[in-house]
Amino acid sequence: MRWAITFLKKPAICLFLASGLLGCSGDTVPPAETARYEFLLENSTLEMKDGVHLAVTYYRPSARTPNETFPVILEMLPYRKDDFFALGDYEYGAYFAKRGYVVARVDVRGTGGSEGSIPESEYSQAEIADAEELIEQLSKKSWSNGNVGMYGLSWSAFNSLMTAHRKPPALKAIIAAHGSTDLFYNDVHYIDGALHIDSYAHQIDTDNSMPQSPDYRIDEDYFQNRFDREPWIFTWLRQQQDGEFWRKESLKFKTPLEVPAYLIGGLLDGYRDFVMDVGRTSKAPVIAEIGPWNHAWPEYGVPGPNYEWRQKAVRWWDYWLKGIDNGILDEPRWMAFMRTGHPPATNLAAVPGYWRCDKQLPLEGGPTQRLYPQIAQQLGNAPSARETAQTLFYRAGTGMAAGGWWGEQTGDMAADDAHSLIYDSAPLTEAVEIMGMPQVRLRVAADAPLYQWTVRLEDVAPDGKVSLVSGAIINPSQRFSRLEPAALIPGEPTTLATSIHFTTWRFKPGHRIRLAVANAQFPMVWPSPTPGATSLLLGDNTWLELPVVPVKNETSPACALSPPEPSDTAPFGKEAKNDGPVFSSVRNEQTGDSTFTTTNKVAWTIRDNEYQSSESYRWNVNDAMPANARFQGERRNVFTISGNEIDLSTKALIESDALYFHVTFTKTLRQNGSLVREKTWADHILRVHQ
């Protein structure tokens, strides 16, 4: 559930009305298109059955004819629609409202402008029940035509999928970008089943503790429902294994989806596998797209190429919510960007490659190419004649070249490969293109009950530079069952298997295909506690299987795509500063110390109010003492509302030893420079196969 504040580009022409509503008509679409609706921006509330009022901002088209009604598009988030996301939300609310849709942007109960207590965690049963009730209420509004869609990126993609599974009658279709169907394996808490401490875990606990907008009252109700609530980071650390906590809203363990879904993923996003998970099982129509970007919408995701997905979104909504037969289901329903290979880089504006379109999603069981690690660091078409053990020494700080999760652009992987077992194919004589989820099987043995394995698929250029294609982590305690984890038996061989995360890539002639295997992926996952070594047993049970597809000519007819359109900028505010995020990694080979840091600062104004937010995070580990890993986080929000300065800062510290995670989280609230309240939570949480 990562998120980023997005600010906008181009002003709209708007009118402040005496009623306090904001009328906007700043049309940035080409004049040749159909005339657009003017719309009103209105803040209101919706009352739930238990009496809690949820805050909603409506982007509502102005009717052109008497009794004209509109479909409703619901987006539900905890990311504070009145301050943190006010400017970014406007871009999408304005776009869809001008095209004849009411957009209802709602804060999750207990967050932002909504009443109630902060929920027990993300995607609580109360949250999804609220979504069902919201859909029913919105469908019955006097300006509604009775049809509702739900959409969003990240958190609101997650709850769109979860709500759709419950099939509320008025919900006709959804759009989900960067979602998940498996909250234990494919979210930001336990990546691939291994503990992941993300900056998000600190951000959300800080931002959820801010006072309720728009009044920002600091009173006993605020302390009881927000400030004094235990941070979620404790909840997540107490749930170190898969089970009911994670599965109660995970679609992977439920019946197939029966609501039509438009799915969007990114090849540099940690959640990209959900597109295939939903697309292959859904009983309702699905269209799906996976582009080369990170955790972002397709019109601005980095790197490009980009396109205007909102045009297709309007056609999707027109079909399902307005009943317009526009042929969208007769067009190719699957589109993915084939990366045609590029040198390692962290600043690409656009990835070389081309779009591939098809009538349906790729099916499982397609053509594959199996390659076997062999002695002399080779990757060949046949297994070794006899099982051979190769020793892998555990270096806990290995992995920083791949970044903080399976996403974002990466530089040369040589630093990580130096502490990995690597196996290279012979130089290719012809291009090989892959699309899908490569499969890996490893036969291993270890000298301690817990290790982690990481596998990376890489491209080695003739000049020796190494590009990351994709990867995956294996927590071996889950090798037999995710629900009944079991420690390794030291010295006893066992077989591990996993899918590498969805990817596309062209391995060019002259390049080599590389499989890299290590026991650490720092800071992406928390280091296992015991220094030592493992063995990789080469033979029939250690292999890599690639999902190959026919190589296409890049000049062949491409998918029908429109360039990104300019977006309307919110007329009531602007960004003042945006420094970050900035990443840094330092490894000392002599001492074995590894440090990874991120920092970020942003400031903006909304009407006459000023907002600032800053954060810094640091991960540390030493190769000789991997049990004693450490995470430190600091975040500070300073909001000046009508001259009243509210300053909330938080500090988090997670330290581990061989048996426990030692966790401390402190919230400090100041008002106009004076200390109002400070509260610290601390716990020692037993390590359980992590």
UniProtKB/TrEMBL annotation:
The keyword Signal is annotated on this UniProt entry: yes
One Pfam family here: PepX_C
PROSITE patterns associated with the record: PROKAR_LIPOPROTEIN
All residue ranges annotated as the Xaa-Pro dipeptidyl-peptidase C-terminal domain in the record: 314-567
Keywords: Hydrolase, Signal
Presence of the UniProt keyword Oxidoreductase in the record: no
GO MF term (any one): dipeptidyl-peptidase activity
Positions of region (Disordered): 556-591
InterPro entries: AB_hydrolase_fold, CocE/Ser_esterase, Galactose-bd-like_sf, Xaa-Pro-like_dom, Xaa-Pro_dipept_C, Xaa-Pro_dipeptidyl-ppase/CocE
Signal peptide: 1-23
Family annotation (PANTHER family): COCE_NOND FAMILY, PUTATIVE (AFU_ORTHOLOGUE AFUA_7G00600)-RELATED (PTHR43056:SF10), PEPTIDASE S9 PROLYL OLIGOPEPTIDASE (PTHR43056)
UniProt protein name: Xaa-Pro dipeptidyl-peptidase C-terminal domain-containing protein
Species of origin: Eoetvoesiella caeni
